[in-house]
Each structure stands twice: as C-alpha cells, then as structure tokens.
Design a protein that fits this description.
Layout lengths: L4 E2 L4 E6 L7 E6 L3 E3 L4 E4 L3 E5 L1 E3 L4 E8 L8 E2 L2 E5 L7 E10 L5 E11 L10 E4 L10 E5 L12 E10 L13 E5 L7 E11 L4 E10 L6 E2 L6 E4 L3 E5 L4 E2 L4 E7 L15 E5 L7 E11 L4 E11 L14 E2 L4 E2 L34 E4 L15 E4 L5 E3 L20 E2 L32 H9 L17 H5 L30 E8 L12 E6 L5 E5 L3 E2 L4 E2 L6
Parallel strand pairs: 5-12, 20-26
Antiparallel strand pairs: 1-4, 2-3, 4-7, 6-10, 8-9, 8-11, 11-12, 13-14, 14-16, 15-17, 17-18, 19-22, 21-24, 23-25, 25-26, 27-28, 29-30, 30-31, 31-37, 32-36, 33-34, 34-35
Length: 569
C-alpha cells in the first residue's frame, strides 16, 4: 500500500495588469511530502529493506515502531534501512512510521505495515528409560520413562506439554499421570514375555508438536497366581474376624477363592468359604488358641495359588465378675438396637452381657448370668429342678444361700426362713471376731428369730454348726461383701425385686420391714470430715432397686449368706 502525506497545498497566482498596456507574472509554491514505501512481508529473523521517498530533498528521516513486536535498533534514522525481522511465536504485524523534517523545518509523516511470518521449528521428542536399573524389568519393578531430554530447537523456544499413550502391551498396566515429564508404572504380573510400546507427544510454546515411540521389554513371572490371605491376626473371643484374600493377584485380575481351616481343633464356621472376603465370629474358648486358614485362588485359566493366615484367639477380659443384666439400649425416647453409632457405649453394648448369646454356660441364667442349682449336700441338680438348697454362681465361683419359704411367725421360724431379719451389731463385745467389726452393743429388737439375740453372728454360727451334714456341703458360710452381693443383682429385671426368682426364690414381703435391705460385711465410714468414730452403720443392698445405702447396725435387715473365696472376688 502506497501512502503519501502532504502538509502544504500548491498555490498559483495569476496577476493581470490594467491600463493601456498589459503583462503577467506566475509564482508556484510546492509543499513537503513523504512516502514510506510499500507494505513488507518477511519471515521472522530475515532481513528486509525500508526506503522512504521525500520532497524537497535534504531533510532528515526518523523511523519508529507504532505497534507490534519490538525490533532491534529501533527507533532509527536514515532514508534507507536494512532491518532484521524479530523472532515471533505467531504471525505478527509491526506498524512502522517515518517522520521527515524538511530543510525549512516542515514535518511530514507516513506509515507502513511489516507482516512478520512465524517460522516455528518443531520440538524434538526423546524417550529415555531410567528405571529399573536392571533390565528387562520383572514383576513389581517400577518402570520409568523420561522425556527430559526432549527439546525445542528454536532459540527461545521451550517444550510446554507432554502426553503419554500406550500403543500396545499388557492391558493391566496402570498409570496415574500421563501428562508429566516422566511416566511410571509397576510391572504387571505376566504369564509370557511381552513388549509395551509407549508414544510420547510433546508440544512447544508455539503450538508445534511431534511424537516418538519407545518399546519396553517386560519379563514373565514364574508364578502367575499369587494368593494373598492377608497378615496374621490377634483377636479376642467373640470378635468378628474378617479373612480377606482380595489382595491376591492374577494375570488378568480375575479369580475366585476357596477358604478352608487347616488347623486342628474345633471347626470354625465361615460365613461363606467361597467368598474371597469372608467372616467368622471368634468362638468361646477356655485358653488361647491359634486357627489357621488356607485360601486357594483360581484364575480364569484354572491355574491356582495358595496362601495361609493364622488367627490367634485370646480370652476376652471379662474377669470373674457378673455383668449388670441390662440388655436393652435406648435413644432419647425409646429402645433401639444396640451398637447404634448415634448412641454408643451403652451398658448393653459392653461387658459379658453383650456376648451372652455366645458364651457357653454350665448352668442357666438371664443374659450372661450362669447359675447352677445344688441340693442340700452341695451336689449339682438339673436346670429345671424346682427343689434346691443353694445356688452356685459359675462366673464368680461363689455358692449362695437359698432362703426357705416364709412360714410361721417370728420368733418361731426356721433358721433360714425368708422373713428372718437381723441386726448387724453383736450383743457381747467379747464375742467379736474378724468377721464382725463393731463396737456397738445393741439389745434384741422384738420380734426376733432367736431367743437370745438377733445379731448376724448368731445366724452364721448356727448355719455353720448345724447338726449332721453341713449345709450344702460346707461350714464356711459368711456375710457377703458389697461387691459379692451386687454381683447377683440383675438390673434388667422388671418386678418387685432385682434377683432372678428362678434361682433366688422366697423373697420376703416388702411390707414386713418396708424395705428389702440385705446386709454386707462393709462398715460405713461417714460423718464429720468423712469419719464416723463410732462406726455405727454398715452398707446394705436394696434388693427392690439395686441401690446401695447404709443402715444403722442396730436396725434389722435381711441376710443372704455366701460361701467361697472372698479374696478372689
């Protein structure tokens, strides 16, 4: 495109004379002009020429860039210039302007466009295998391919994008990132030697791209079914145990499983022996046992592999104490299924009662309670016996007195009559022993089951010294401790009292004393600053509610004798 700029306009004046003679005189004024020349098209980094034409001659030329990419050495002066096109990342247009200052001081200007064509050199893609150190790679090796040696030959170019693509090879290869400088994957399990071909495509900062391929040799594995039964486990009886073979590996990832117990001893039932992930409940045991399970894994080609896992089962630390008998769980308003995550850690979720349906019992009882009925000689009876003299607690080992039915009127009652009630205090300080710790001497309340006094020592002495065979096979009957008496309380019961009537029948009528308090051997220490110097009260368990209170030793309460190892409980 040819452009011209004129700042002055030529003016012609024709002057004519008047009068008798005629004549003429012409004067023409020509303005300054400048022509920058035709627009230029040039390939980047090549030379081109700028030549301006101006009038009148003798002035100065100044070139500058109006817009577009920068060009070295601009601005410049001169009528004719040789210029090198700049390096551009894309086709670009530089607008140049030339100013011409005439010798008389007039200034004119013109512009032209320089169309610069980008001439991108494509990047060079290079793949280098950098891992593993020893090749060909084998199963579980980490194979690493690197594109770090790829380059852009342009002087100021760079590689800005990477794309990896698997062209051939095992379909079981797994790659996390296919757009990084490096590609890595774990050598899969193979039944035959194979070659994986990877294609790398790189892109430079001008959008140019190129690709190259590389092959990776992958060695086969001697064993093609790798069974994995999991790590050995340490569990407790009654725990839910999971056997998991889902980490087994086959060539195509397809397989099925078969579990079997290979250890001796009682057979443990699995939820489903044909599932790769199955469960069982650890059984009730008397001592630590180890159970070994073998899984046989079969692939789609009917090839097999085996593995074993050992599960060590220990006793659950339930101790030799009974639970509370509470078997229900609750939300804010009603009973719910136990094990609820929104209302966790309830009584029924914990302890012996929570696994009561799994515990083997010698006798019978609600939830985890386990009682055996005994006859007058201390011999075991069947669970459905209706006549019995004592009850053995198979959890604590204690043997408990069973009261005789209420009969007669005090003081004319049998020695173990249900309605008999006693003072904790003794009537003679010289009659004290290690069992009864009291400094309180009390008169006999009336009525009383004995003619001499109503103290508990008299009851214990009478039972332990009865004529003939000892009561239930023993003469070591005593008053129970607080924890012992609480151990037979069933807080899950609904009714007039908290003892199971199947094993502890013949409870006294609450109207007799207006309570169901039963003595324990523990003296109550209370009063000013936590000390009662007279020690005049003892703890009782209220069998109507299961609560613990203290009672004056001079008052009367009921007694349930016990026999067994006090220190063990």
């Amino acid at each position: 495109m040819l452009k011209k700029s004129l700042v002055l306009i030529a003016v012609s004046s024709i002057l004519s004379g008047c009068g008798g003679s005629g004549g003429s005189s012409d004067q023409e004024v020509v303005g300054a002009s400048i022509n920058a020349g035709q627009d230029v098209t040039v390939i980047e980094k090549n030379d081109f020429t700028l030549k301006a034409v101006a009038s009148p001659s003798g002035g100065t030329f100044n070139w500058q860039i109006v817009s577009g990419p920068s060009i070295d050495s601009f601005p410049q002066t001169g009528e004719e210039l040789t210029v090198t096109a700049p390096d551009v990342k894309a086709n670009s247009v530089a607008v140049l302007k030339v100013d011409y200052l005439t010798p008389s001081g007039e200034l004119v200007s013109d512009t032209l466009n320089v169309n610069i064509t980008s001439n991108n050199q494509l990047p060079v893609a290079v793949i280098t295998q950098t891992g593993p150190d020893t090749q060909p790679s084998k199963y579980l090796d980490t194979v690493v391919l690197s594109a770090a040696d790829s380059s852009d030959p342009d002087a100021n170019g760079q590689v800005v994008g990477y794309k990896w693509q698997q062209i051939s090879g095992p379909s079981t290869i797994k790659v996390d990132d296919t757009s990084a400088v490096t590609l890595s994957f774990v050598h899969p399990l193979l039944a035959e030697n194979q070659t994986a071909i990877w294609r790398l495509t790189i892109t430079d900062d001008e959008g140019g791209s190129t690709s190259t391929d590389a092959s990776v040799a992958l060695a086969k594995n001697a064993q093609v079914v790798l069974a994995n039964a999991g790590t050995d486990q340490q569990v407790l009886e009654f725990d839910d145990v999971t056997l998991d073979a889902t980490s087994s590996v086959t060539v195509d990832g397809q397989y099925n499983c078969k579990w079997e117990q290979t250890s001796a001893g009682s057979t443990i039932a699995l939820a489903d022996s044909t599932e790769c992930k199955t469960t069982f409940q650890a059984p009730n045991i008397t001592d630590v046992i180890s159970a070994t399970f073998k899984v046989t894994v079969t692939d789609s080609a009917n090839r097999t592999g085996e593995d074993e896992v050992k599960v060590t089962i220990s006793k659950k630390p339930l101790s030799n104490l009974n639970d509370t008998g509470a078997g229900l769980c609750f939300n804010n308003s009603e009973s719910i299924t136990c094990g609820n995550d929104d209302f966790p850690g309830q009584d029924a979720d914990l302890g012996r009662d929570s696994v009561s349906q799994l515990i083997a019992k010698e006798g019978k009882g609600n939830l985890a309670f386990d009682f055996t009925k005994l006859d007058a000689d201390g011999k075991e009876l069947s669970n459905d016996a209706t006549t019995f003299s004592c009850v053995r607690d198979n959890i604590t080992g204690l043997v408990w007195e069973v009261k005789e039915a209420t009969a007669g009127t005090l003081p004319n009652t049998s020695i173990r009559n249900a309605q008999n009630h006693y003072t904790w205090a003794v009537t003679d300080p010289d009659d004290m022993d290690d069992l009864i710790h009291s400094n309180t001497v009390m008169p006999n309340p009336v009525p009383c089951p004995h003619s001499d006094h109503c103290g508990i020592k008299n009851l214990i002495s009478s039972v332990n010294s009865q004529a003939g065979d000892p009561y239930c096979g023993g003469r070591t009957w005593r008053l129970p401790s607080y924890s012992e008496l609480m151990s037979i309380v069933d807080f899950g019961r609904q009714g007039a009292h908290v003892l199971d009537p199947e094993f502890f029948p013949n409870m006294p009528d609450v109207s007799l004393l207006n309570h169901l308090h039963f003595w324990t051997i523990q003296t109550y220490v209370g009063g000013t600053e936590g000390i009662d110097a007279n020690l005049t009260s003892a703890y009782v368990v209220d069998m109507a509610t299961g609560n613990t209170v203290h009672e004056s030793k001079g008052n009367t309460a009921y007694v349930r004798l016990v026999r067994g190892d006090e220190d063990a409980n």
